[in-house]
Predict the 3D structure of the following.
Amino acid sequence: MADSVLHTLSAQHGILFAKATIVGRGSYRGRNIIAKNVEDDDCDARGYWPVEWWIMSVTPAENPIRKDKEGLTSIILQGGKEALLRDLLDTPGGEVERALMGMYRSKWPLVKLLDIGGKEVNPDFGACTCADGPTGIGAPEVPPIPCHVHNGYTKRNEKGEVVHTKPGKLEAYYFPPLDTPEHAGRPPLTKVHARLGLRPTVTKDDVLRALDEFGKNDAFYALMPAYPVEPYGGWTIRQGVMHAPGPYPTLEVQFAQDDAHMGSWTLGARIEPEEERRRMQREIQLCGLNDGREWIERMVEWDLNVDPKFQERYHRPIRVLEEGTWGRRYQLFFDEFYGEGVEVKQGHKMTRASDEHPYVAVVWSGEGGANGNAVSAAHEHAREFLVTPNTPLTLENTGNTVLMVFTVFTIA
């Protein structure tokens, strides 16, 4: 296998292509961007909709109902062969790992494209006790991902004691533009919001009451401020911060793990009967914790959530790095993460200097070449690739529209 990988890498001038790895989720639907995922019959036998594209992933999905190798990316090798990226990195001798990752395998992130959406619902915020939160029946909206938090794994050991393993999952978002040919004709998204953190007026008793309403109403969402989702912007979300990403295609980078504790169920949806609601509450909200109070103390970094300057501290618009007649390059992930967007105009090319870090690249729009290999947002096997260490990347636009490529590097 090592010879096949190294031969492919040489023939493709330092890059490897992958098949799209689609992960299902049972708590939200999409907008038919990465797959059909809006209607009831678009789900699989588990009741999961195909809403997440995991990009160059070596991290298995940890859904309540597991599926073998779900979340793991397959690399396309010369001669039509395929192999899991994780297996390639484990090839004995270490030569393949060094060729693909250099010294940075332990810093490899989990990168996703989230297709968030579904049909409009009328949320029921209940009798919200927060001073400035909405109450009762709200205006129609497309559901976000249910509000949840990442602050490590919890489970009970053989003695029945709670074991809490940190750190939790640090993550960041980028909202790509949708005014591209690949996304033309879709219903326009207006007034899309992401609910992030907690309102500064929220108390722990407010959260405790909302947690107990899990699957009954949408009380928890009323405790969270709603920030507008705008293209060419994003956020950094710290461990222990509540979040409900809004119904907009979202490029996400995070620590390579899949921990989560739910705060509420899907907006507008109810869980019945009561026995089933309690079971799901135990399994995906408490996850081994004793009750809501322990959930708040272990899962929620309180001061980060209620920070009045939350937007000022964590909102991240792009930063242009260079531009010219050929197009532009800009930074789209910040803090512990790093990523870039590159836009190459029709008939032009650009070269990004080599880097000791490996990185993933996703073609969001257009078509052209990458180190002489055909790339296209419209073709599954030509839109996701790995750029290996010390490889210059030349992008050439041979199409009729802007070639737009997003890259994500190793974790700082």
Residues 274-286 form the longest helix (13 residues).
